[in-house]
Specification:
Blueprint: H1 9-12, H2 19-32, H3 55-81, E1 82-83, H4 94-100, H5 102-113, H6 117-134, E2 137-138, H7 142-161
């Protein structure tokens, strides 16, 4: 819709829900009319004629960056709950604790957040993989470790489901 002055657009759109938005745009344009643009240079950040990347390459890079962001948050939370040095002889690996209580942890988070079980399972799978890669062990007693694991799984599931990490709308 062009808001051409004196075109009668107010009458044309009278009674339409979009009229309020069109009036807002008209007010905004009126407030900047006659002013010089604050940015007047023609510098282009990434000229399209010089961009040789394919769309697949772009999304691959974006996915890799997102993985690092998610991994960083998961690693930080895991290292608060678990330790890289076994605190006592026979301390179980974090992966064993998480795998052994996967069903209960998933069910608890699904009940609490109302998230899809599949989503919770995927976050838990990532936590188990990261625990294995970081070679983490249970610190303290199992009950505290399970309580923290449940909280950690809830937090990460909530973060991912609310879109606080970059999403890729395709």
């Amino acid at each position: 819709m062009w808001l051409t002055p004196k075109s009668g657009w107010r009458k044309s759109y009278a009674g339409w829900p979009a009229l309020h938005k069109l009036q807002g745009v008209d007010e905004l344009i009126a407030s900047v009319r006659g002013r010089r643009a604050p940015v007047r240079n023609r510098l282009r950040i990434e000229p399209l004629d010089q961009n040789q990347r394919t769309l697949a390459q772009h999304y691959r890079r974006k996915l890799a960056r997102n993985r690092l962001i998610r991994r960083g948050l998961a690693d930080e939370l895991l290292q608060r709950a678990f330790t890289t040095q076994p605190p006592r002889r026979g301390a179980p690996p974090a992966t064993k604790l998480l795998r052994g209580h996967a069903r209960a942890l998933t069910a608890s988070v699904v009940r609490t957040l109302g998230s899809a079980p599949y989503s919770v399972e995927q976050v838990l799978r990532m936590l188990i993989e990261r625990s294995a890669e970081l070679a983490l062990y249970v610190r303290g007693n199992r009950r505290d470790a399970l309580r923290y694991s449940r909280w950690m799984l809830e937090r990460l599931t909530a973060v991912y489901s609310q879109g606080e990490t970059p999403q890729l709308p395709l």
